[in-house]
Amino acid sequence: MNFRTTALPLIALTLVVPGVASCTVEATPDGGAGTGGASSGAMGGTPANGGGSGTGGAGIGGSAGSSGGVGGATAGIGGVGVSGAGATAGAGATAGAGAAGGAAGSAMGGTAGSAVAGASGMGVAGSFVGGGAGGGPAVPPLDCGENGVVVENHGPPSNRVNYFIAADGYSEAELTTTLDEHIAVAMGKRFRDPIGQVYLRYRNFVNICVLKLPSPPICGSSIFGCCGDDESRLARCNESDVNAALNENRPESMEIDWRSTVLNGSDWWNTGAALMLWSGGNRDAAGAALHEGGHGFHQLADEYADCRSNWVNNSSNNTDSGGKWNDWIDYDQDPGTGMQGFFGCTGNSAYRPSDNSMMNSLFGDDPDTSFNPVSREKMIMDIWRIVETPWDSVDPPAGAVTSPTALTVNVIDPAVINVEWSVDGAVVAASGGPTYNVGAAGLPPGAHEVTARAYDNAGTDLVRQTTGTQYNRQYWGMNASQTVTWNVTIP
Ligand SMILES: [Zn+2]
Predict the structure, then answer these.
(1) What's the gap in Å between 25 CA and the centre of ligand 1?
(2) How far apart are the CA of 265 and the centre of ligand 1, in A?
């Protein structure tokens, strides 16, 4: 989130806003396809995975949050000798004697459970001795501003998507009752598998704040002037007032990447634009928040009605998507939206990738209302446009270092980011976890170049179309996979 990256979406949005604004989204389905009542689910935490299969590593477990994560893998085998390594202790490959990797970091909805990274173990003479991944460093508190409240805190705003929700029409008392319920309902679906994916997988990549200012009811003299109408089904607010309030409230250091307004009402008024709007009290509000975010933050098109747009998830013909989803054809997303291909929109003048999807019908809880793989892939690229490095810090800093005990890459989420370690150009651990216990690795005296390549481990169920610069695909190669290099001297 530096200024370089913000210019891009502004341009894109300028071009696409007409398409968004005319979206008359989301008619209520016939026959009540939606389930009654609000979606369940308070903001439960996802257990963060503990350490990767770090060798050795007497990791200290993270202090668990509400639900403990999975502990790190147990001690692995010793590293393979490399380039004459093991000179001090035979041929290397003595098993790392460390205990289990770090036990679980955990993460709750709001504040992440802190976890102490696993300390390195006592492997002997292998070229790679990993440490337990632990849960990574503790997450410091998130500052959402004077009138802002934390919904999700996952790390430094400088390396996260920062999503700010402004509330309109909630009285002072309702700010801590009705509003909290509306937010909880929206978050419940956002982090539900599979419908909310990929937000569950990338939960640690997005901070969420809500701006709480008391207000008269909507459709009157509310602070942001929000209202709507049943004919267009669009919500409308005074966008400049919302943006001014968000900009005034946010901490200086936080750049807001994603803006929305939740209306205190139950009408079916929602809008997917740069400032996305949804009615928090409707029975399908949580789906609306996801669908409109698909428009507003991800530039995804509607996949109902005639579907015509230039966006990634529809095509003007049914034989070639024009590079939009060529690699997804005949892929069966299960659970999810099923077989991908070309499905005719109304009038067959345009086509969508799947029969149903979140961008087609947002109602209810059927897995086929998930984001289809074409949408999910775009969502991942959008996250990596904002999140500029797979790690938050590197310890010690890259560059020259003498006799380090350990080298650590504090990745955003060890369950999502793998680390490949190399010594002098040879891979010593394809997925070694965030820490390399150099002190115990027995590297021969001299100079060594140690590199750590941290990369998003998304499989081919999530990412396939990665070439070119359309649809933010350039950020997959640019930000989602990066290497840090240390020039290590062993006396
Ligand atoms: Zn829509």
Answers:
(1) 4
(2) 19
* Closest to 358 in 3D by CA, of 338, 331, 337, 332: 337
Query: In terms of Cα–Cα distance, which of 343, 299, 298, 296 is closest to 321?
Result: 343
Please give the distance, rounded to the nearest whole angstrom, from the Cα atom of residue 286 to the centre of ligand 1: 14
Residue 465 C-alpha to ligand 1 middle, in angstroms? 24
Q: Could you give the CA distance from residue 288 to residue 359 in angstroms, rounded to a whole number?
A: 10
Sheet containing strand 481-490, edge to edge, reads 399-402, 481-490, 446-456, 417-423, 426-429
d(CA 424, CA 437): 16
CA of 227 to the centre of ligand 1 (A): 18
Is 255 buried (19+), middle (13-18) or exposed (0-12) by CB count in 10 A? middle
**Please, what sign has the CA dihedral across residues 289, 292, 294, 297?**
negative
At 166 the pLDDT is 98
- The alpha carbon of 30 and the centre of ligand 1 are apart by a number of angstroms equal to 17
Angstrom CA distances, 351 to 222, 291, 298, 449, stand at: 41, 18, 19, 51
- Does residue 454 contact residue 364 with C-beta atoms inside 8 Å? no
Structure tokens given for 341: 């291909």
pLDDT for the residue numbered 135: 54
Residue 359 CA, ligand 1 centroid: distance in Å: 6
Pair 429, 52: CB distance under 8 Å: no
Query: CA 491, CA 488: separation in Å to the nearest integer?
Result: 10
CA of 295 to the centre of ligand 1 (A): 7
What is the distance between the alpha carbons of residues 306 and 149, in angstroms, rounded to a whole number? Answer: 40
pLDDT of residue 99: 30
Query: Kind of pairing, strands 206-211 and 148-152?
Result: antiparallel
Q: Return the pLDDT at 133.
A: 53
Task: Flag residues of the chain having pLDDT under 70.
Answer: 1-127, 132-136
CA of 288 to the centre of ligand 1 (A): 8
